[in-house]
Amino acid sequence: MPDWTSEAEVQLDAEALLKLTHALMGVYIWEWFLTVDFDWELITGKRPFRWPIAFYFANRYLLFFAIIGILISFDTTTKLNCQAIYVFNQLAGNACVGLASINLSLRTLAVYGNSKLLAIILVIAILGHWSLILQAGVLLRAVWSDQSNQCIIVFTNNTILAATLIYTMVFDLLVFLLNAHKLFPRKGNIGYMGGSRLGRLLFGDGLVYFFIAFLSNLLATVFMLLNLNSIMTVIFNVPAAIASTIVACRVVRRLSTFTNEGPEMLNAVSETQLYRKSRMPSVLQATSARNHHSGAGVHVQMETYTHSEAIVEHGSASNHTGIDLGLRCDETKVRSEYDVEAKAIAL
């Protein structure tokens, strides 16, 4: 077990933090280049801009500038206003975590059909979260050191920072459990969303994103509470902010760009099963339709049901020994009970 408070260990941890931050900057820039086309479509008007996207943009680009600020504070050899840049880095980094939680909360609210009760609960939770985030300016004090030729932190308020991380972790766990509770019973359920592509999208990688956000903040919280030294206390704060932002923005993009490729059965059936069902008095077939007037933030995805009635046509001629059966389709389009994206558009 190393002596975490020794000067040599602190210096070693500081170098590790510096390298980790540079590596994460590369990861985030790579993620940005892979997905910048979505942002460009919103900017150029190819996708109509809706108000939830404002949180997406703020989250995505505020983190970009926060990482730049962190690298400047690490790499600069010219004297600068250390207090100002560290306050910006702290506030921007915490705000990115808060914005990621807002994006995940909006997705959760959409899954629950814009429930007013849930909306009130989430708004109260978000306000409590930001009451801690906005205190970032008083969390630390940094000064320029002529001896080391860099900024050094002379005071930190770990109590508020730890409270912020714990609150974030619990908040992300809450939205994860809310989504799991709503989506888990639907897995494999034909009557809901389990067999549809939208159902797999929401239940599969959708819940994975929520879980990643929770784990990243859990890791940062654990090291904050361990308080090994001044570096190890905050070493996973930047990874947590980047991970939360990436997964929250992916949640927004994936649901916004989701499309169905033609008709889709909610449950895979064989041709024999389809033939047998066609001989029954009533058949339910599921197709999918898109609302091409949906906005940029979310696309309306409807599970449409076609009700087919089998009508028996009796032969009128006496020399006919068989009975001809005909099918006449009476299409009745019904909006899905669990139309998540249509409910999300109401945001």
Automatic annotation (TrEMBL):
UniProt source species: Lentinula aff. detonsa
Transmembrane segment boundaries: 53-74, 86-106, 118-140, 160-180, 201-225, 231-252
Signal peptide interval: none
UniProt name for this protein: Transmembrane protein
Keyword line: Membrane, Transmembrane, Transmembrane helix
